[in-house]
Amino acid sequence: MLVRRSVVQTLVGSLLGFAVAAACGEDDSSGAEGESAGQSCDAAEQCYEDADRDAIAGEVLCLDRVEGGYCTHECVTDADCCAAEGECDGRPQVCAPFESTGMMMCFLSCESADVEGDADEYCSTYAHAEFGCRSTGGGSDNRKVCA
């Protein structure tokens, strides 16, 4: 009887451990970690929730020109990206123009200096499953970003 109780306790403990580990490993459909640029959004209020928003360099935006939304903020230089406490998850970001908006914004970089291996795979892993590495399309200041 003592052996049977021990086996049951071990089994239950193991199953609970696996359940907790599986739940902790789940993420949203974006694939983004932390509060980095590229997080999916419906509104700017959903972006950088754990960051010191008053310290973020420019206006926080949810780009609706990117399917599923794209958290970002206005910037002037690369140094403006990840400048606020809790803003980024440690992956390089760049300040670049986006398409014909005329605005400079922070994006998750996929430039060759910032990414080892396949840039499209990097983007789908760390930004959004549907993202690839592409040009920002902002004229002569184009950068390679995950979008």
Give an overview in words.
A hairpin with a 6-residue loop joins strand 1 (60-63) and strand 2. Residues 1-34 have low confidence and may be disordered. The chain has two helices and six strands; from the N terminus they run αββββαββ. The chain has one domain (30-146). With 147 residues, the protein is of the alpha+beta class. It has a two-stranded antiparallel sheet. It has a two-stranded antiparallel ribbon with strand order 3-4. The longest helix is centred in the N-terminal third of the chain and has 24 residues, at 2-25. The N and C termini lie far apart (60 Å). 22% of the residues lie in helices and 16% in strands. The protein has helices at 2-25, 119-126; strands spanning 60-63, 70-73, 93-97, 104-108, 133-135, 144-146.
Give the key terms.
147 residues, alpha+beta, two-stranded antiparallel sheet, 22% helix, globular, disordered N terminus
Fraction in helix:
10-25%
Strand content: 15-25%
Largest sheet: 2 strands, antiparallel
Q: Which structural class fits the helix and strand makeup?
A: alpha+beta
Number of domains: 1
Shape assignment: globular
Number of helices: 2
Rg of Cα set: 20 Å
Order of helices and strands: HEEEEHEE
Distance N to C terminus: 60 Å
Report the strand count.
Answer: 6
Q: Please tell me the overall pLDDT.
A: 78
Layout of SSEs?
Layout: H1 2-25, E1 60-63, E2 70-73, E3 93-97, E4 104-108, H2 119-126, E5 133-135, E6 144-146
Antiparallel strand pairs: 1-2, 3-4, 5-6
